[in-house]
Specification:
Length: 158
Amino acid sequence: MAACTRLRHNRAMKRRLPAFALLPCVVLAACDAPAPRAPPAPVPALAAGDGSIQWQGRLPCADCSAIEVQLQLQRAGTRRDYILTEVYRAAAGDARFLERGQWRQQQALLHLRGSDGSRRVYALLPDGRLQPRDRHGRALLPRRDDDALVPVAATTAP
């Protein structure tokens, strides 16, 4: 009778095999990362010349479904005005607010001061979007990358 050979298994190799099998999956998953969003059209320099720039977007809301925001900055000579429209979308009905005032730019921050004394701060992101900030210019938490207003129009005076 032929001798029965018993196969020996390397138990350590059994434990390592699943890790090696997953390695190509991890590498392929990293290669399949989604393409970055195309940046919005560049925004003309805020401090250069007369004209206006407009942003809009939907921001999160704690007690409504969203806040639709439209912000227009206007510059004529030394005068810098803004018009901010916010529409709070809620099941019980929408509430629309209009605010006017003066704006100033301090590095990458826009400071808005309403005619009623209200104050707001937005960060001008490198891609031209505006992101709401606290009164000291710090990011609001929790923050998502899409919590920003997108530039939609810009005009310059001749």
